[in-house]
Amino acid sequence: MQGQAQQQAYDRGITIFSPDGRLYQVEYAREAVKRGTASIGIRTPEGVVLAADKRSRSPLMEPTSVEKIHKADDHIGIASAGHVADARQLIDFARRQAQINQLRYGEPIGIETLTKEITDHIQQYTQVGGARPFGVALLIAGVESGTPRLYETDPSGTPYEWKAVSIGANRGDLQEYLEESYTDELSLDEGVELALKAIASTNDDELAPEGVDVAKVPVEEPVFEELSNDHVESHLAELDLLPSEDEEGDEAA
Amino acid sequence: MQGQAQQQAYDRGITIFSPDGRLYQVEYAREAVKRGTASIGIRTPEGVVLAADKRSRSPLMEPTSVEKIHKADDHIGIASAGHVADARQLIDFARRQAQINQLRYGEPIGIETLTKEITDHIQQYTQVGGARPFGVALLIAGVESGTPRLYETDPSGTPYEWKAVSIGANRGDLQEYLEESYTDELSLDEGVELALKAIASTNDDELAPEGVDVAKVPVEEPVFEELSNDHVESHLAELDLLPSEDEEGDEAA
Amino acid sequence: MQGQAQQQAYDRGITIFSPDGRLYQVEYAREAVKRGTASIGIRTPEGVVLAADKRSRSPLMEPTSVEKIHKADDHIGIASAGHVADARQLIDFARRQAQINQLRYGEPIGIETLTKEITDHIQQYTQVGGARPFGVALLIAGVESGTPRLYETDPSGTPYEWKAVSIGANRGDLQEYLEESYTDELSLDEGVELALKAIASTNDDELAPEGVDVAKVPVEEPVFEELSNDHVESHLAELDLLPSEDEEGDEAA
Amino acid sequence: MQGQAQQQAYDRGITIFSPDGRLYQVEYAREAVKRGTASIGIRTPEGVVLAADKRSRSPLMEPTSVEKIHKADDHIGIASAGHVADARQLIDFARRQAQINQLRYGEPIGIETLTKEITDHIQQYTQVGGARPFGVALLIAGVESGTPRLYETDPSGTPYEWKAVSIGANRGDLQEYLEESYTDELSLDEGVELALKAIASTNDDELAPEGVDVAKVPVEEPVFEELSNDHVESHLAELDLLPSEDEEGDEAA
Amino acid sequence: MQGQAQQQAYDRGITIFSPDGRLYQVEYAREAVKRGTASIGIRTPEGVVLAADKRSRSPLMEPTSVEKIHKADDHIGIASAGHVADARQLIDFARRQAQINQLRYGEPIGIETLTKEITDHIQQYTQVGGARPFGVALLIAGVESGTPRLYETDPSGTPYEWKAVSIGANRGDLQEYLEESYTDELSLDEGVELALKAIASTNDDELAPEGVDVAKVPVEEPVFEELSNDHVESHLAELDLLPSEDEEGDEAA
Amino acid sequence: MQGQAQQQAYDRGITIFSPDGRLYQVEYAREAVKRGTASIGIRTPEGVVLAADKRSRSPLMEPTSVEKIHKADDHIGIASAGHVADARQLIDFARRQAQINQLRYGEPIGIETLTKEITDHIQQYTQVGGARPFGVALLIAGVESGTPRLYETDPSGTPYEWKAVSIGANRGDLQEYLEESYTDELSLDEGVELALKAIASTNDDELAPEGVDVAKVPVEEPVFEELSNDHVESHLAELDLLPSEDEEGDEAA
Amino acid sequence: MQGQAQQQAYDRGITIFSPDGRLYQVEYAREAVKRGTASIGIRTPEGVVLAADKRSRSPLMEPTSVEKIHKADDHIGIASAGHVADARQLIDFARRQAQINQLRYGEPIGIETLTKEITDHIQQYTQVGGARPFGVALLIAGVESGTPRLYETDPSGTPYEWKAVSIGANRGDLQEYLEESYTDELSLDEGVELALKAIASTNDDELAPEGVDVAKVPVEEPVFEELSNDHVESHLAELDLLPSEDEEGDEAA
């Protein structure tokens, strides 16, 4: 284990290796991811689900302005956790890659292909000097040739494929929750509910409809779709996760 | 909590992550925003209001020269708080983007679109080396397809949409004031008055007409309009916020 | 209040924010301005006046070579205070901008337009790495469509419009003097005399004609004009500010 | 032997020599290689074998997403150990070089040629400033004109040719194991089994089929081929290396 | 007054402002000027004189090789003090500017124009990073439209016009000497003699003809002309400044 | 002699001079050369010989992969010592220069010409910033117009011509051995044997055929030729330098 | 006199001024010159002589490979002292300048012109960042329009013209020797002999023919010519400077 003084030497200036082979700037960027509220992805045989905790910091802020789930292409959604402005850069990058693929090959970009183009882009910021790494993790979810796919990217530029995964705050607890509750035979609706329950689990088992974004890409009709507030509310009601009247009153503006 | 010495290590040279995932240069740029006098935005069903505290530092300075609210396009106004010279750069950038949009697509730029182009621009200055972040926050207010919109940009390059918001000095107090007083059914005039009352609330409930800029973009005729000094004075008189004779005499040149 | 050691951390290398949101290099550039002798601008209904304290350091130096007031365009004069070589760069920049405006639009450049082009240029040197800020403040004075205008630029790149203002050494005292003595109904000659009295006020109420530059742009015929030594001397004589015989003898070569 | 303080001096900023002629950044990159799980290459007269330890960190992660063996060309496979995102950059580089060779010369790229192009690329990152070295080692395995070849690249950009070699964690133990067990007359299947036994040797002599990637390029038909999970499982069963029921149950999702 | 440690902080790397608004690198470059032997310029109604102390360091060195006065154009001479190699760069720059002016406008360059082009060039090296300031001061002397002009440039890039001035070693004493002895009615020959007496005054009132360069640009025929050794010797003899026999014998080779 | 702290100041960042006029980065690169096993060159009237100690570090490593002697052109061989990846860069550079010479002038490149092009290339890396010096020395051996030539390059970029020379580990002992044993009348075979005896002299007078590379360029037919293992073995047998049975058994795989 | 710590501050990174106006990197480069063996230039009415001490460090090194005198053009020779690889760069630069002059103006380059082009080139490396100064001094000797010329360049980029001069080790003693022995009426042969005696004077009055390079450019036929070993030997014999038999035997190989 290294001391504080030693550590400082490796995180000034450009991203370089520490004596034990670590890239501190990349590890600190992972801390920036943990500072963001959680996003969750669930892959089911019927499609993929993305859900994001976006509890507004103020009743006067438009909940829709805290974007955490974005459409990258007709068949692909991306959820983020971490430094918001960095996430927006990567999502713009993803959209351009999807458009280029469509123009060049006349077909929608593959989920894995898109993930790898994004992670290559991220990696460059960890090796070449003059810029810092991206302080954000992404979940890239979509349907490709009838198969649902769910990928994670981290600040080092490594892609991972998951059945179910969380990024951002409370990853340890949420991942444990998912491992206990996930099965391979979930319906798409059950996937949505697992995601909502997981997020609520770190929030006293309560969740306001405005405090969460949910989206899905079904296998049957592989089109990215964000769930309406009413739709989310009915899920939450069914799961008995809606906040008590008092508390919701506090948050309403 | 980190000590002073540790902190110093992360704010020299380019913008990099600290061990807990923060970007100190961006946080210090937020301090530059707090050093500026407050600007306030209010969204009502009838349009958006911008108001800016610009108490002149000298009776010989032209009040109009302390610009804090600018027209970005016919239908969009921008108020700023923080480093004045940085604000001017971003407003020039906004105007160019509005012109390009008009030339390219033959239609006025959307409020959200413009906000995102500005925040992308701001983000670049927080990731790529060789420059410091912008030390300024903006309120971007306008009417788009009949809908009033109000956005905030911060030094990290994150956009937020608000019903009512303040930037700059006393944000804590002002935001609390707005949360208590804002309702969704304000008329545009009531929006102007709420903004004036909020600014006066941090100034012993007094406000000279020359000490505040007010502008609006009404839904009915979505054209950016700065209120005349007389107009502001009649509002202030109605609200009983005009300074007592003695004090005003001091400020007159 | 911060200690010395802390402060040092923020003024090495490129211009970056300190933890309290300040740009030390810009503030130090302001100190360079204070090291320069004072320049004063006075706006009257009949035109604008610039005056600059240029007491020569040696009887063998040509007083005209210590240029502190320059013609930027036919209708615009610029006075400076601070780092002389930096001032010359900005004045060259101003002249080029005036010429470009004339070529491009077939009309003289506006005073406000010119000021903003200069302050945008200055701001770049405070944000982008690889150069230091300009250590100079300018007074930009002219007549535009029959209206006299008087602007100040500072090392941060912020423009201010004034009725009467001083830059450089003794700003506190001089600004106080101006606030006490300025009225909106000065004639142009009274403006010249106010400027001379102000400069003399920080110099034992004496001023040699060679020790001051005076220029004006009258509204009636908006052409930049430097006052001859004789003209200045008659003003000084009338104001009883000429040095006593003994002292003047010392300075003659 | 040098002390800690001395060492720090040579690993800040760009890659430079230490007084004893070492490149610390390259040596630290070698530590990054050791932090990765092991990959093994075995050359037999019948072809080359690659095997990689990829024990998944979570039951919800797709084992296939932890890619450690990749096809570089029809006749070439590459296994990696170390920083995953860096490995992906080098493998993309390898694929482009293989394609360029095919386009330019109309024939598949040689194994040695490809290795040298990769190591030249790696070396640049150790000599020219503005970037860090690659934190990854590769095993490049293929068949060239009927001859099996097996190369290693390290972070300094040096190529080595091997009969049998391991990279990544436990290299000392694994290399010793290979030296004891390797003979020049292995069949391809025996090569696969030697690789599996070696990896299991550092893991309590147990290995789940999902926890290992195996690929081969046979001399007879020189085409890169990844072994199916079933195929791997039958090998492991034959070698009595399958985990006991209990343990496997834990890892199943 | 600042301490040593404080000062060090501002003179590493690029030229930046110190907390009291000074540019240490520029001030240190002025010290480089003081390390050079003196050059003197005298302006008389009949023309301008340049004289430079160039006492050879070795009897084997060609006195002509220690160039301190150069012809910049037919009508302009330049004397230097300080870092010799830097002086040569600026003199080459001056010659190119003179040629360009001749080519572009068909007339000889003005003395003031040339001075300003040189000082603009010098200023760039004090503001933009990646280079140090010029460690040299110049005296630019010539006749322009029948008027003799004499300018000084310093390492900050500031131009000064003088009647009589010295740069380099002993500036304080020499300038005092000039102030006491200079009158506006000197003949050109008296100007030469004043310059020689001034230089000799800091050297025990002795001066070898080989130890001084003298040049002039007369108003009557404005052509730069270096005085021959014989001519200088006759001046020195007349002024009784020639070294005693013994001493001259020592210097002969 | 300087202390450790002083020394550190001169080896950070780019290659600069120390107060005693040394280039530490170049001297440290020489240490990298000493860390490599020895290479030896012998010039005889019948041709030039290169020999390189390449004792394999592992019985599983292909001896041929530790390349220390390379063909640069038909008539030129190059042996190296030091940082292997750097050596490969320089040898590629040498081959390109040889090809360019052939294309441009239609004749083989001269040995001295090639050496100077390589040393010019090396020197650039010691003077211009942004890269470290090459950590390798080369022996460049060939026959040019019937004359055998043998050159050394070092990390400073200085070329030396030799009758017999060693680079890398044990240079002191080996050079002494060569000085004692070398005569101007060696046959080419005697040159080979001198090289082998020298290398063996630092290795208990034993040498396995796989542990040494030998090559020659004969005057009679000036073509670079690497000696086969059998050929080397017969030389070693004749010189009674073959390892005893036991030891060789250890190294065989 | 400054302490060690103070000094360190000015020799890191690019070449900047110290508080007393010195350029430490240039002064350290002068130390690199002193580390080289001496070169001597003598100008006589009959031509110029260059001589260089090149005592070989090893009997196996080809004396001719320690080049210290080079032909720059038919009529110009250059001797060097200091960092050998840097000298080679400057000599290549000189040759290119000579060729360009011939091509452009159809005549041989002047000695002074060539010297100034070289010193301008050297100066750039002392002012612009990103490279270190050249650690070498040159003697440039030739005949121009029937006149012999002898110039020295130093690491600051200053040119000096000499009658007789030494660079490199023992400059103090050698220069003193030259000052005592040089007269303006030397024949070319006497010039050669003075140079040999001077070099021998710092070497126990002995000099092996292989240990010295001598070249001359006679006025009568201004062609650079290196003296043969025999020619040098006969000079040395005549001067009784040949080493005693024993010593020479030691150096023979």
UniProtKB/TrEMBL annotation, chains A, B, C, D, E, F, G:
CDD domains recorded: proteasome_alpha_archeal
GO BP: any one term: ubiquitin-dependent protein catabolic process
UniProt-annotated location(s): Cytoplasm
Molecular function terms from GO: threonine-type endopeptidase activity
A Pfam family the protein falls into: Proteasome_A_N
Control of this protein's activity: The formation of the proteasomal ATPase PAN-20S proteasome complex, via the docking of the C-termini of PAN into the intersubunit pockets in the alpha-rings, triggers opening of the gate for substrate entry. Interconversion between the open-gate and close-gate conformations leads to a dynamic regulation of the 20S proteasome proteolysis activity.
NCBIfam families cross-referenced by the UniProt entry: arc_protsome_A, PRK03996.1
HAMAP family listed in its UniProt record: Proteasome_A_A (MF_00289_A)
Name the UniProt record assigns to this protein: Proteasome subunit alpha
Species of origin: Salinigranum rubrum
